[in-house]
Amino acid sequence: MTAGRGIVHAEIPAPDNTEPNMAIQLWVDLPSHLKTCEPRYRDLRAAEIPHANPDPLVNIKVISGTSYGIESLKELAYTPVWFLDITIRPGGSVRQELPKGWNTFMYILAGAVTVGPNGDDNSGKHDKGVRAKQFQNVVFKQEGDFVEIRVTEEEKTEAQMLLVAGVPLDQEIVQYGPFVQTSKEAIFKNFHDYQNFQNGFERARDWQSKIGEEMMSR
User: Fold this and answer.
1) Which of 131, 149, 166 is the last residue of a domain?
2) Do 133 and 189 fall within a single domain?
3) Which of 151, 166, 181 represents a domain boundary (last residue)?
4) pLDDT band at 118, cuts 50/70/90?
5) Could you tell me if 78 and 30 lie in one domain?
6) Segment among 7-16, 28-37, 95-104, 162-171 with least mean pLDDT
7) Does residue 176 share a domain with residue 83?
8) Could you give the CA distance from residue 102 to residue 139 in angstroms, rounded to a whole number?
9) Both ends of the chain: CA-CA distance in Å?
10) Do residue 25 and residue 128 come from a single domain?
11) Residue 59 to residue 51: CA distance in whole angstroms
12) 162 vs 68: CA distance, rounded Å
């Protein structure tokens, strides 16, 4: 979903699901010149997401971006963002190329991974990498152009992680509630527009969530 100059929406987990729901929400700031772009929504179904399988122990859902030559759908975002859902079984590894100079982080959803080189480099220094486990976040330096991730054979379970990368924006970030702008003045204007149903919020007057109504009627 791209909020742009204004959008109102509702998020409610599937009401008939008896299992716990897990959701990851990623907010990506828009460049200042796109803050007032037209809002849009694109529902991406599982069948539309391509997979990369560099070896039998690795599965990469290419939600956005490129992995091992597999490219995602093109029309998802106004700004370049890579979003990869990676699962690695014990003994598997990933060498994921990234655009140099981008901000990149990895969030561990399950299991544990080892990040970094494995074995001796040309200097003779032995580096076993850094182990990261469930619910930890790993932030990478901008200078690199790839990351190495592996699950050692000593690990008992497979690991699942999200690898996210995007273009750094050289602009101020001012956030209040659901609004993200580059100045306090712009935030105040967002509140004024929302309260007066203008400049993107014309249809917010008397808006009711259909899925919210369904939940309340149960």
Assistant:
1) 166
2) no
3) 166
4) low
5) no
6) 7-16
7) no
8) 11
9) 28
10) no
11) 7
12) 16
What is the predicted pLDDT for the residue at 192?
94
Both structure tokens of 40: 């849009």
Q: Do 16 and 63 fall within a single domain?
A: no
pTM, two decimals, is 0.87
Q: What is the pLDDT of residues 24-49, one digit of tens each?
A: 989 999 999 999 998 888 888 999 99
Same domain, 36 and 109: no
**Whether residue 68 sits in one domain with residue 20:** no
Amino acid at 73: L
% of the chain at pLDDT higher than 70: 92
Both 35 and 79 in a single domain?
no
3-state SS, one letter per residue, for the chain: CECCCCCCCCCCCCCCCCCCCCCCCCCCCCCHHHCCCCCECCCCCHHHCCEECCCCCEEEEEEECEECCEECCCCCCCCCEEEEEEEECCCCEEEEECCCCCEEEEEEEECEEEECCCEECCCCCEECCEEEECCCEEEECCCCCEEEEECCCCCCCCEEEEEEEECCCCCCCEEECCEEECCHHHHHHHHHHHHCCCCCCHHHCCCCCHHHHHHHCC
| pLDDT average, residue stretch 102-120 | 89
pLDDT digits (tens, 9 = 90+) for 134-187: 999 999 999 989 999 999 999 999 999 999 999 999 999 999 998 999 999 999
Domain of residue 147, residue span: 48-166
